[in-house]
Amino acid sequence: MTEMLKKIISYPKILLFLAGGISTFALPPYYHIWILLLTFMALSFFLQKAESYKQSFVFGYWFGFGFFSAGLSWLANALAMDIVSFGWLIPIALGASGAFFGLFFGVPALLSHYFKNVYSKIIIFAVSIAFFEWIRSFLFTGFPWNLWGSVFAFNHLWLQSASIFGTYGLSVFLIMIMMFPSAILILPHRKNAFIGIGLSLLIVVTMFCFGFWRTAKLDNDNKSGISIRIVQPSIPQNLKWSKEDLEQNFADYIELSQAKGFETANVVIWGETASTFPLALSSSRMLQILPAIPDDGFLITGSIDYFPAGDDWQPVNAGLVFQHGKGLIANYAKSHLVPFGEYIPFRRYLPESLRPITGFISDFKAGNGVQSFSTDKLPPFGLLICYEVIFPAEVVDKNNRPQWLINLTNDGWYGKSSGPYQHLVTAQLRAVEEGLTVDRAANSGVSAIISRSGKILNKIGLHERGNLDAFLPKDLEIVTPYSKHNNLYFFALLLLLVVFAFFVSELLR
Q1: One of 133, 272, 388, 433 is an active-site residue; which one?
Q2: Domain span including residue 424
Q3: What is the pTM of this model?
Q4: Whether 43 and 117 share a structural domain
Q5: What is the 3 state secondary structure string of 57-93?
Q6: Could you confirm whether 247 is annotated as catalytic?
Q7: Mean pLDDT along residues 24-41
Q8: Is 272 an annotated catalytic residue?
Q9: How far apart (Å, rounded) are the C-alpha atoms in residues 199 and 76?
Q10: Catalytic residue among 240, 334, 365, 455
Q11: In which band, very low, low, confident or very high, does the pLDDT at 403 lie, cut at 50, 70 and 90?
């Protein structure tokens, strides 16, 4: 057994690549969190044994390579929607994702090498991972997907610390919890080694107590008088943009909206690009949707729209608000577009024939940023389209704060993968951070009403067809430290931990 273990340890790159890949089973929707005790223990062990900065970087890089290659596997589903055009890109996309994002593990591992004390090393590694998650949120337009803090979403009680430190803060806590016990393998003195278990338990108990206290205070069954109907037709992605099916898809939304219970609805919500026709520019289409607008109520939908761009008109991925008797009263253009999905970066250097993978439109025009909408019958709300919800601290108009958020999405291109569940969790995390109720309407995916504490109150399951009828909570919002100060407390936490790491390093020298 000892010889076999020595042989396995002699291939650290392969072992760490596999450990990183296996770690993805701790993410939504699996939540096998116990796996991280093993995989992060392996990483911690090798980082402690690393003999140089270069070796530390390599160990961290291969762990990150495995994690991101496996964690972004749903990209294959998007490319497979047009297997003839994009199928050849699948191995390249997964490999390139791991190769690039692996750097976001390699550099933190390199920085941790400065410290010889195992606890200081772990603290700096956790701090650096979370800091580079923050960088990942804006670098090259940003892609903060699968943040480590999302692992806690198996129960919204564990998400509550995000109301202070954000999801990045949850990532710091998660990594320290999982890595501190590795001291048992590394330190020769059992007494010092068990300090790691004690530190992990301290963080766990603190998070649990805070979460229990906060959810007990916020969670209630009080309902407002505003009735919401979310429509999820679950149109397969290969039919979503099919010219032969566009009319039927549109008719499905209208038919489902008018199903039993429509007469009591105040607001009907459709998903992203529910209308592949430019509703705002077509009087005939506007007439078609009138029966889907509740009496004295509203229809909020995603739609293709066109905004003026110089002497031309350019398509936008829009959210439209219709009111009974008044027609179109507000519109919103998605501002955070998906690279290669809704526009092609560096377009001027690439062939015009290259098109985004998620539709037939060549490129969307970006909007001007998030905004809030007010009507005479609804609490002020913000609109987010699809992947805009994944960006911490970027989902709310700070100068005109809404009371709830509506997230219109289409997760059909993820297929039956972990992608839709991971996307749903980002909406839960934004609800906790901002203290806002989130209504999520998916064309295909998981539609849900999420409370201000991140609790899923009602939902339609993955790729299920139907309606979600529910009342908005009476208590829609609460101001959180994160909503007031964004990442201020997160950076304060990082600074405090860095100082503590140096203190521990000197104390246990």
Answers
A1: 272
A2: 223-474
A3: 0.94
A4: yes
A5: HHHHHHHHHHHHHHHCCCHHHHHHCCHHHHHHHHHHH
A6: no
A7: 96
A8: yes
A9: 40
A10: 334
A11: very high
